[in-house]
Amino acid sequence: MKIDEDIILIAGPTASGKTTLAIEIALANDCVIINTDSMQVYNDLAIITARPDACELSQAPHLLFGHVDAGVHFSVARWLEDAAPLLAQFAQDKRKMVFVGGTGLYFNALILGLSPIPEVDQAVRDKWRNATDRTAEELHQELANLDHVAALELRPSDRQRILRALEVIESTGKSIHHWQAQKGEALIPDGMAVKKLLLMPERGLLHDRINQRFDTMMEYNALEEVAQLLARNLPPDLPAMKAIGVPQLAAFLRDELPMHDAIEKAKAASRQYAKRQITWFRNSFDERWEMV
Question: For residue 257, what is the DSSP state?
Fold first, then answer.
């Protein structure tokens, strides 16, 4: 597939075939491939996040894959810091780039810029992230008391985003919506031609791919990978510890679930995640994204 544009963006839900398409395009257009997925950045999670394997990595330059330790609380802002010099260098060299992944916020930050939310005070972050004795619904009520507008837009079960809104309002004194309304500078330079591709397989096919892929992960020692991660005794609120498959296989390793149930729960979580991704893409991406 020959593409004229300087930058190619490939987004889609988990197991939609993004890696295969990215490599096909990279080989046909002499591109470098840059990871745009929030879980594939973690070095410890090669198998459970379906990161490109050694054969795939050998076919084209791959950057920002597995370059972050699982003990780091990585963020979209940190990803932009890592991606910016790569984009500038390859643009200067007139080398085409493929950004590929399933994290919609990374793509939006790349195209539109990132809201300039100040760094949250560490003590405030620790306070909320350590509130493990409180349910998501209780935290949502607390957010409603502090930031009514933010609470209205978040599901009472969305613990991670609720915690983020709580730490922002307490640390900065302003709603997360105040900061999100102030867009930063887009990373893609003006004048660069961009091709936007969105993979949206039919639901039944996608579910089959998700189920088959997790079976393959298990064949390639996903359980051992999770066991090695757990052996590090990392804080449970770290993003890497919440990667789909990690909590479910961890439950098996702790003798809380039989293996079959752990696998089925992981597959179900992946299917639910794909549904959320599809909803996000449909609501957030405009008509300039070409469905493939």
Answer: S
* SS3 of residue 224 by DSSP: helix
- Token pair 């560490």 is found at 122
Max alpha carbon distance in the chain (Å)? 56
pLDDT tier at 177 (50, 70, 90 boundaries)? confident
Distances (CA, A) of 71 to 36, 49, 132, 248: 19, 16, 19, 19
- Calpha distance 165→171 (Å, rounded): 10
One DSSP character per residue, 140-198 reads HHHHHHH-HHHHHTS-TT-HHHHHHHHHHHHHHSS-HHHHHTS----SSPTT--EEEEE
CB-based contact 40:66 (threshold 8 Å): yes
Query: For residues 141 and 291, what is the distance between their CA atoms, to the nearest angstrom?
Result: 39
What does pTM read for this prediction?
Answer: 0.85
What digits encode the pLDDT tens for the residues 247-277?
999 999 999 999 999 999 999 999 999 999 9
